[in-house]
Specification:
Blueprint lengths: L7 H6 L13 H31 L7 E6 L2 E6 L7 E8 L3 E8 L4 H13 L1 H8 L4 E4 L8 E7 L9 H21 L1
Antiparallel strand pairs: 1-2, 2-3, 3-4, 4-6, 5-6
Helix pairs in contact: 2-5, 4-5
Length: 184
């Protein structure tokens, strides 16, 4: 397997077996599986890198930083061992779009609307840093209950080696803009 230049993690996930390169029965299934594994591995690596960027750039006065990277994104929060209902996120959504920002995911609309009202009252403060792309309003996908202050990047180049730094830096912009507005 070493001659194929595959990452060791991919070899383990493929069970260490040689892929079917003969073009015979099973080739499409084997190669499809390998493609899925490569995509999942890449996305994990991207969002793990974003987490390290955020860890390195986050201001210490907001509390103890935590993050959880998963195959389609990263969740960032402070202090609590588990992610609270109010947190920051960068995640792949819809057809190749990337959402970056703050989420309020309380079980009730009233609780989420209170969060939005606090942020709306301080819009002038956070808008200076976040600009016009930041949208305060219904959550993408769960508009009936959850709320957001976030932006969507259409079709980011997932192969761009600078993407993790760009996403991490933008999450830091959200931390710096939203945390003082939440506290104030």
């Amino acid at each position: 397997m070493r001659g194929h230049g595959w990452p060791p993690r991919l070899q383990v996930m493929c069970g260490g077996a040689e892929p079917n390169m003969s073009g015979g029965p099973g080739r499409a299934e084997a190669n499809h599986h390998l493609s899925i594994v490569r995509v999942v591995e890449f996305q994990l690596a991207l969002f793990d890198e974003v987490g390290e960027v955020v860890r390195g750039l986050a201001p210490p006065d907001f509390g103890e930083l935590h993050y959880r990277a998963h195959r389609s994104g990263i969740k960032v929060w402070f202090d609590a061992a588990k992610p609270p209902r109010e947190h920051y996120e960068a995640q792949l959504i819809r057809a190749g779009e990337l959402e970056i920002g703050f989420h309020a995911q309380h079980p009730t609309v009233a609780d989420n609307d209170k969060v939005v009202a606090r942020l709306a009252a301080r819009e002038k403060q956070w808008r200076k840093l976040l600009g016009d792309d930041a949208v305060l309003g219904p959550f993408l996908g769960r508009a009936d209950t959850w709320r957001r202050l976030s932006e969507v990047w259409p079709d980011p180049d997932l192969d761009d080696p600078t993407l993790a730094m760009e996403v991490g830096a933008r999450l830091i912009d959200y931390l710096n803009a939203v945390e003082p507005a939440r506290a104030g």
